[in-house]
Amino acid sequence: MQIIRRLEVLREALDQFTHAGEGVALVPTMGALHAGHMALVDAARRRAPRVVVSIFVNPKQFGPTEDLARYPRREAADAQMLSEAGVDILWAPEVEEMYPAGFATNVSVAGVSDVLDGAHRPGHFDGVATVVGKLFGQVGPAVALFGEKDFQQLAVIRRMTADLNLAVEIVGVPTQREDDGLALSSRNIYLDETERARAVALPRALGEAKRGIERGDDPATALSAAVAMLTRAGFDTDYVTLVDAETLTAPTGGRPARLLAAARIGTTRLIDNIAVTFD
Ligand code: PAF
């Protein structure tokens, strides 16, 4: 596996794939890789002859009070995992390579970026859309893979890709979970033992709400019960909501719907989501 930090070197390596007629699957990450990322890599290997994984802790998607400085960074261990998984290129640019002096462009996807996490983390999805747009421009993948755990991020990227007519197929990969149901996340390492034990309330609250809604309970009642369950477990809830899976607006019967939640336990903010059948 080549580890590349300079755009000109990346272009030369990608040119060789192009000349050999080999398409590329891209897995964008911020590192601190876990089994959830490796499921993206597995899916990527099944979809294209060449796999590029990017590791870039993108400052533009962190708010001023967020965890940019303490975000876990462990590139050597990540590179080892990726190499063993048969990845062709690890694209790991420095901030100056991604955002050179004079960089002035912001990609903003209205609507899907403005609600839920977008309302709680102003500017976050502009940062995500901007860097993902750049990664698509840098790598030119035929397909790019993202985890469904960041469901709103996936909706933003799908919207941007369609709106800008980008020639890349966006694939969402189901959330990977611990045995007790907690969604895998690089931020789970912030949880102490007590918080980790309580964190399982998040997938459980979503599961309860899903079952309630699917057996015909009033969604508002099911959502309130989920918030109460989270509060009892020690969470401070930002939202638990039922939305249309594509637009993230109010759900309408007959279209895919999704339950999404964000809640803080101690200093750690966790998100999760689950598909719901809603008529
Ligand atoms: O999901 C992530 O790790 C990041 O938001 C992404 C897509 C790599 C953009 O920085």
Structure description:
The chain has ten helices and nine strands. It has about 280 residues and is of the alpha/beta class. Strand 8 (about 255-265) and strand 9 form a beta hairpin. The chain has helices at about 5-20, 35-45, 75-85, 95-100, 115-120, 125-140, 150-165, 195-200, 200-215, 220-230; strands spanning about 1-5, 25-30, 50-55, 90, 145, 170-175, 235-245, 255-265, 270-275. About 40% of the residues are buried. The chain has two domains: about 1-175, Rossmann fold; about 185-275, Pantoate-beta-alanine ligase, C-terminal domain (Pantoate--beta-alanine Ligase, Chain: A,domain 2). The structure holds pantoate. The site of pantoate has 10 residues, from strand 2 and helix 6.
The biggest sheet, with number of strands, parallel, antiparallel or mixed sense and barrel status, is: 6 strands, parallel
Rounded mean pLDDT is 97
Radius of gyration: 19 Å
What distance lies between the first and last C-alpha atoms, to the nearest angstrom? 48 Å
Structural class, please?
alpha/beta
Q: What kind of oligomer do you see?
A: single chain
Tell how many strands the DSSP assignment holds: 9
CATH architecture call of the largest domain: 3-Layer(aba) Sandwich
> Helix and strand succession?
EHEHEHEHHHEHEHHHEEE
* CATH homologous superfamily caption of the largest domain: HUPs
